[in-house]
Amino acid sequence: MTIAVFPGSFDPLTNGHLDLITRASKIFDQLIVAVGQNTSKRGVFTTAERVAFIEETTRDMPNVLVRVESGLTVDFMRDSHATVLVRGIRNSVDFEYEQGIAGMNRTLDANVDTVCLMAAPQYQFVSSSLLREVARFGGDLTNLVPPVVAHAMVDRLAGDQ
User: Fold this and answer.
1) Which of 38, 61, 82, 121 could covalently link to 77 via disulfide, CB atoms 3.0 to 4.6 Å apart?
2) In a 10 Å sphere around its CB, with 0-12 CB exposed, 13-18 middle and 19+ buried, how is residue 67 labelled?
3) Taking a C-beta distance cutoff of 8 angstroms, is the pair 25, 60 a contact?
4) DSSP alpha helices (H): ranges in 89-161?
5) Which of 25, 50, 87, 128 is flagged as catalytic?
6) Which residue of the set 9, 17, 25, 87 is catalytic?
7) Among 10, 5, 31, 15, which residue's Cα sits nearest to residue 121?
8) Annotated catalytic, 41?
9) Is 129 a catalytic residue?
10) What is the DSSP-derived secondary structure letter of residue 128?
11) Is the pLDDT confidence value at 137 over 80?
12) Element (H or E) spanning 58, and its range?
């Protein structure tokens, strides 16, 4: 059984993330979505809220588990018996960044392989900062994030300029 981990802060969960989760869940026997805390950014949603959003939007994917991650991803993977790290690539900047992270992870644990999935074209421009900006001004996020996330973002950020 091949267990893969898709780590991220998911703040917010986007349709691009959900597309990658769906695609990876068809490739691997089990996919663990590892929700981490980005210590260099102040988040919009709590860890519990982010976990709830992912659980709600993946409830029809029986081989997808959602877990909270703290510390090194390779340690989380070892504890989860996972051997594959799933990452999404939107552009060449993401590729360069992920290449470095993959090299470090492989150095830390030779059993970890990184698999990169290309973002669907309709999500290649989506970033958390752009989504937060749109939400602050009450813009339409329905094609960019799951409905539960769109409502929560507008409630949390609308008028916060």
Assistant:
1) 82
2) middle
3) no
4) 92-108, 128-136, 147-157
5) 128
6) 17
7) 15
8) yes
9) no
10) H
11) yes
12) none
Is the CB of residue 20 less than 8 Å from the CB of residue 117? yes
Residue type, 147: P
- Selecting among 67, 78, 90, 106, the annotated active-site residue is 90
Q: Is 26 a catalytic residue?
A: no
Q: What is the DSSP string of 65-121?
A: EEEE--S-HHHHHHHHT--EEEEEE-SHHHHHHHHHHHHHHHHH-TT-EEEEEEPPG
Specify the pTM: 0.93
Instruction: Look at residue 42 and tell me whether its pLDDT is greater than 80.
Output: no
Reply yes or no on whether 80 is catalytic. no
CA distance 43 to 77: 24
- Per-residue pLDDT tens digits for 54-113: 999 999 999 999 999 989 999 999 999 999 999 999 999 999 999 999 999 999 999 999
At 88, list the tokens.
């999404």
Question: What is the Cα–Cα distance from 155 to 141, expressed in whole angstroms?
Answer: 12
Q: In the β-sheet with 113-118, what is the strand arrangement from edge to edge?
A: 64-68, 30-35, 3-8, 84-89, 113-118
* Residue tagged active-site, from 41, 70, 81, 151: 41
